[in-house]
Fold this sequence. Notes:
This protein is of the alpha/beta class. It is built from 16 helices and ten strands.
Amino acid sequence: MLRISEYIRKSLKGERVKPFNGVILIWNITNVCNLFCQHCYSASNSVRTGELSIEEIKKQIPYLKKADVRYIIISGGEPLLRDDLFDIAKLFKENGFITTLSTNGTFIDESNIKQIKEYFSYVGISIDGDEDTHDRFRGMKGAFKKSINAIRLVKDIGIKVGMRFTITSQTYKSIPFIFKLAEDEKVNKLYFSHLVYSGRGKNLTQTDKEIYRNLVKQIIEKAFEYVEKGINIDIVSGNNEADAVLLYQTFKEKYPEKANILYENLKVWGGNQAGVRIVDIDYRGYVKPDTYFPLKLGNIREKNFYDIWNSNGILTELRKHPRKIKGKCGECSYIEICNGNSRSRAYAFYGDYFMEDPECYI
């Protein structure tokens, strides 16, 4: 995840960023969902078979701490479809984890908003465009209105809230609308996720490379505008670390005298963190380097999280910096910034975890 606004802001002030040494865990506590989103990496459905119990989750708490997990993002499926969601969130909070909620927002209402405030420090809600685009992409009429209502409820009760938008050939024309919506709703964060070919997302495509690059340029330019005008919406992107290179190139054009500060900050950030500072546990207990990885490292029902997270194999290769990537990524002078980008996308395209990222637009 590239915190574009923060890196612009700090670099303009001449501030150095500090490396984050802990681990961020995305825990997909269920695969059940009420929507049928075209890009869903977990291909969520109505099946609960194999879902971890709260007792099984609780057993892993000491091992998560030992592995230096500090942040837990509860996701799904749709996590609010688990009856014991708040018991799970309470368990994490009582054990000192900073816990956030990733949701489609359709189940947030007056009956649960106070519990959400009690247990979550941040809520991310998916919006994929205007009402027609969103409802079509999510497979449910009325989903947009429910999600917008959720954003307002979360914001009004005093929880930090962000909108998540996935860039695909079906949604990219909605980006100007998304910026206007974020400004009107005064959200805290706007997160742009790049498409990774996983789950139902395998059936989607990204747009032409030149259009794609221009889209990211548009996002980065908007981040500069927000910083320069003091608009308090943080722009963040994820799943295509080439964004950091384009950020650097744009920053260098605008503020050449401070570009070296940004470059050094981006080196500290370190690019793609799958298997390094990012890990995923799916609803059946399988541990993966990130949510999109087809490769399973092990299952917490058979082996504790700490031992899985400290095993050899692909994790050793993922933790090399810069990674040893084949193709154009291996020859790129910016690899120390992006760290080779998405290994999941490389595997989906080439069948090789260490080939170049096919969606690098640099």
